[in-house]
Amino acid sequence: MIIREIQSKSIITKSELPESEYCLNPYIGCSHGCIYCYARFMKRFTGHSEPWGDFVDIKMNAPELARNSVKKIKKAGGVVLIGSVTDAYQPIEKKYQLTRNVLIELLKEDIPISILTKSALVTRDIDLLSQFSCCSVGLTITTTDEKISQIFEPGASSTEKRIEALETLHSSKINTYIFIGPILPIYTNLSDIFFKTNKFIDSVWGEKLNTKYGALSRMESTLIKNKIDSVDKFSCLANDKDFWISIRKEFFNLASKYNLHVTGFYDH
Length: 268
Known about the structure:
The model has no long low-confidence stretch (mean pLDDT 93). The strands form two sheets. An eight-stranded mixed beta sheet has the order 2-3-6-7-8-9-10-11, with helices on one face. The protein has a three-stranded mixed beta sheet with strand order 1-5-4, with no helix packed on it. The chain has two domains: 1-133, no CATH class; 137-268, pyruvate-formate lyase- activating enzyme (Alpha-Beta Horseshoe). By secondary structure, the chain is of the alpha/beta class. β2 (12-14) and β3 (22-24) form a beta hairpin. The chain has helices spanning 43-46, 62-67, 70-76, 93-96, 98-108, 126-129, 146-152, 159-171, 190-197, 215-225, 231-238, 241-257, and strands at 2-6, 12-14, 22-24, 27-28, 55-59, 80-82, 113-117, 135-140, 175-183, 203-208, 261-266. It has twelve helices and eleven strands.
């Protein structure tokens, strides 16, 4: 893993994502190395030649940049999404604590925040998160099959640890949600995910697998490399319109069954 300490010109940018007006990313790159990660497009802007997942740039002045922006954001209004193209709680956060220090700055003006992560480390900051008037924390869950999770999301917390984190956050009266995305044909058991998480969440997001920009071929290669014998079926379903219609229907039916609010469902 190539780690660089850098000075950044900005830390908070306008968001084009639903449910948030701003995005905040304390790091460039991510050591989770998720095979399907859409944030690979960031390399077009960062100038990195290393493979996505092999580098992380540390925005050393992130807390200062946040400090200089909070009053303007407070006046304009809006939610800040933390971790849109990086994971703010990836392992390097244990050492640098950029995310924690950024939260301290945002808390001074009680800026509404939303966090999305694949890391149980987020529970470390419950003492801060619980002080925000408006705070939601989401954990991405793609599969309850730990073997598949390790293959597709090698650097992230195990699914079991993520669900435990949801329980801990929820018991601390913090608004929680799951992001089931991308939904992986064969390997994403929606029924099992809803069953294991529904008691610890307030809402749910869903996302259809995006097969564009080489994502499908990367996943196929990874499955073959790991000697998973369902590659052909996975590939076939990934581009099957009827399959995705049925998945969408199942997703909304399960949300209704467990009386969970559906914030959105991304359909590429």
